[in-house]
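Methods — Computational structure assignment.
A single polypeptide chain was analysed. Its primary sequence is given first, followed by the predicted tertiary structure written as structure tokens.
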Amino acid sequence: MLLDVCGVRVWTYSRMLTALVFTLLCISNGNGQTCTEGFAYDRRARVCVDVDECRTVPLPCRGDMLCVNQNGGYLCIPRGLYSQPYARPDPPALPEPAYPDTSAGFPPDTFRPPPPGPVEPSYPIVSRSAPCILGYSVGEDGTCNDIDECEAESHQCNPTQVCINTAGGYTCSCTEGYWLVGGQCQDIDECRYGYCQQLCANVAGSYSCSCNPGFVLNPDVRTCSDVDECEEEPCSHGCFNTYGSYMCNCDEGFELASDGTSCIDLDECSFSEFLCQYRCVNTPGSFSCICPPGYYVYEDGRSCEDFNECDTGNNTCTTAQVCFNFQGGYTCLDPLTCEQPYIELSDNQCMCSAENPACRDRPFTVLYRHMDLSSGRSVPADIFQMQATTRYPGAFYIFQIKTGNEGREFYMRQTSNVSATLVLSRPLKGPKDIVLDLEMVTVNNVINFRGSSIIRLTIYVSEHPF
């Protein structure tokens, strides 16, 4: 490629180094111009002109060699090639161009028409014994053929340079990936100039681009594109592609394992013992609550509700029996049988007549009641209430627990002159049945009367606190 830089035409054989050659040939320093080796800056003409090394360099040629100045350099040739001997021949003058050539660095106004007559050649005149100009040799047909100095290895390029043959001469250049610094071809560090988007490795005369993990090199071998790792399905559940990587996620009820790709089941039951009211059973990705016999899982999926066997008919009671449901179970109550001297007054009450001598010092009536109670119920708790159904003028009433309270779990609290409440004072642990005789004593001092009535209360304590 031919460049015209600061008035000097320069050949460059590297596309990559075109801009670099331009920079090396002509650098502005504010006061003038700096030219490449073999040229000097002419301030009047404002161009780079050739330096005559044959005149300025001491002893440029050795032995019986003559120095011949060239554009940007010089040659050492044998003296016998010239028709008239001289110590150092003057360089031939360049002819004036026949047209304005601004690419050579001359202003348009310096154009001069060519002089009449033949134009002197721009190469040394040789003797008649050498009919061809320098750089050519006579062929078998008598014509002048170009000498390939590069093939003949008669060039003066240093080992780091590459010889390129030209018509009548040769030029020394650098291969692609190198540039000329101080007469030597040095490797260009392309990585320094950001040739690669991500990773760059400089090698002699070239470079190599690569990408970070999660990216792939594009066909331009310079830029990188993100790799969608999710297309290869690396995750056991869900995958989310990110720039340069990816993330795995798990379905509800699972958590990501330490390998970052597989999912393991979460044991929700281990989070809290209060997750289920009774018992928690872990399942893949979830959990379920179960209830003990006599209960079913409520609509919330966690609490237990009593299964009423008496209402659903899912019981073993006979038609003569009465089904009594309590928390977590049921019982079959046999028909009431009053013990002598009591007689049946109603379905759940026995009476001992005052006219019967055997009833003296016995409660006048015994009323049978049943109730259920949850195990571990908080205390104190009012659980049962009793009151007088018949009131006599001048009478007052005393309420007390007559039997069944050996563990002191209950006490009676009188709430009025004619009523009292049974209070649970200590927690009960089931399952068990407790029978209490709650007595109401009637005292009438006006007529000197004292009598009593009994409520026989059966309490079914459940096994569970619900």
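Note: The chain has four helices and 37 strands.
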